[in-house]
Amino acid sequence: MSTVHILEHPLLQHKLTYLRDKNTGVNLFRELVGEIAMLMCYEATRNLPTEEIEVETPMAVAKCRVLAGKKLAIVPILRAGLGMVDGMINLIPSAKVGHIGLYRDPQTHCPVEYYCKMPPDISERTIIVVDPMLATGGSASAAIQFLKGYGCKNISLMNIIAAPEGVARIQNDHPDVEIFVAAVDEKLNENAYIIPGLGDAGDRIFGTK
Q: Which one, of 191, 205, 196, 188, lies nearest residue 132 by Cα?
């Protein structure tokens, strides 16, 4: 089964508290999503391979380490996933960004694809799929399957809040994909929204309803 990493850094949990608050306005909510994504990205990339190089300092030659191997790609699931990209790019500016557009059918709660644009070398990159919420897991599972269809093999999933149902779906559909979350909440309600959650992340990021 997929490994689930629940990230409990105090700064991350502090910011998540204000993200949940219904009184948090659009500007602050958007800032918090970016900051949380940056903190989570730091943890999600902890095991990236490095290699040793020599750098000449003003005093001497130092043996230092740089990232090695495959390059990174961030793939947000539109539209809410866009809110996480800037914070991650601040840490890894060389990463390429692909986009997958999926929406949840209000009747079936199943994902429907409407857009896809990937870097041409996406199959050669280490990929982090991002979406603030992992509810039923349908959209995330579909996005991961789509990437696997491109030949991608090294894929992780990063969500701010998850429901147990969504975690179980990814573990069942994609046992090779690591999951990084800041919290696993209680359950889904009858409309497949996470409880207690934080409402609709896309609406709160972009000020829409």
A: 205
By annotation, the residues acting in catalysis are 104, 108, 200, 203
- Residue 151 has which token pair? 């030949």
Amino acid code (one letter) for 166: G
Q: What is the pairing mode between strands 111-117 and 99-104?
A: antiparallel
Q: Which residues of 160-198 are buried (b: 16+ CB within 10 A; e: fewer)?
A: bbbbebbbebbbebbeebbbbbbbbbeebeeeebbeebb
Q: What is the pLDDT of residues 85-124, one digit of tens each?
A: 999 999 999 899 999 998 767 777 677 788 889 999 999 9
Q: Is the pTM of this model over 0.70?
A: yes
Q: How far is CA 127 from the centre of its chain?
A: 10
> What sign does the dihedral 142-161-158-95 (CA atoms) show?
positive
